[in-house]
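S1.2 Input.
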Amino acid sequence: MSKRSNWSAPYAVFLLLFVVLPLLLVAMYAFQDADGHFTLANFGKFFHDPDALKTFAVSLEIAIETTALCVLIGYPAAWILASKKYNRSAVTIVLFIMPMWVNALMRTLATSQLFMMIGVPLGKGTLLFGMVYDFLPFMIYPIYNVLSKMDKSYAEAAQDLGASPGTVFRKVTLPLSMPGVWSGVLMVFMPTVSTFAISEFLTNNKFKLFGTIIQDNINNGMWNYGAVLSLIMLVIIGITSLASKQKGAEQSENLI
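S1.3 Output.
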């Protein structure tokens, strides 16, 4: 144990057992039929299943709308939190982050009960509200983290050159904060596109998302088709992650 690299062994074992192995099992089941023979029929079934395709499109729509709302609400909140002029207390920051300390299912159940208590019908509106409520802190914190560490001399230099506050924000603050925005987009989009419990509680099973179909297939013993759906979702999340990283790298290069 004298070598520093030996301390990574437990983490390597953990990744192997709980990350690599499950992914391999998902891929294996996706390319097999019920008898264990290689097949591509499971993928064909998905692309010829109108209900699954419709649910997949709805899930992407909900995820995009939720992410957009989180950006629109989260960026001004993060900017205010990072501004010493408008926020001088660390308590305010804790209040925004505090919902992350509570289990998401507990928050969702509480939100559902509130809607039922005041007589609001459960549907897409309540689903979007619950999604934004649950994932908004994941958008605020990375943006706030970037804004709070931003070198203020850039904005001061722009003001000295005669730039208006709007121009300073558009030309300096916004471009420099984009890495935090893309990080927040990734942290919100990835879980919302694959969630299922939130839609069940906040729509009373009236609004199905892609995660619900995966859950139904697994629960009904249709492991192979469920694995295909899971693999497709993993590919979408992987593409989103790579695109976000590439966009963040391009932003950094442009700033340099």
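S1.4 Remarks. Residues 50-82 form the longest helix (33 residues).
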